[in-house]
Design goal:
single chain, about 110 residues, mainly alpha, Rossmann fold, 2 domains, two-stranded parallel ribbon, about 45% helix, about 5% strand, elongated, P-loop_NTPase
Amino acid sequence: GDLEVDLKGLFRESKMSNTVLFFDECEVIFKSRNMGSERLLNSLLTEIERHEGIVFMATNRPYEIDEAMHRRINMVLEYAPPDFSMRKRIWDSLLGSERVKPETLLNG
């Protein structure tokens, strides 16, 4: 369909312009075959396998990504949510001289 054509164009454009591809919430398009469109997933798998550039993917639900896609992933980086101390450091670095009230520091 049209989406498969658009995907081929996306990968072709990435190759021609030497850009990095980033798929946020990638579980939406790389979901398990029993959860969605097999034709779209097959097209994506083919394009990613042929792609010579860099592709980043982000997800909060890796268990929803199709196993065939998992096999094509070279590296996985997991980021745990920041704890209280880290949240405080983040806010302090963003706000500079403005101080965050302790009750504002997001209790997880």
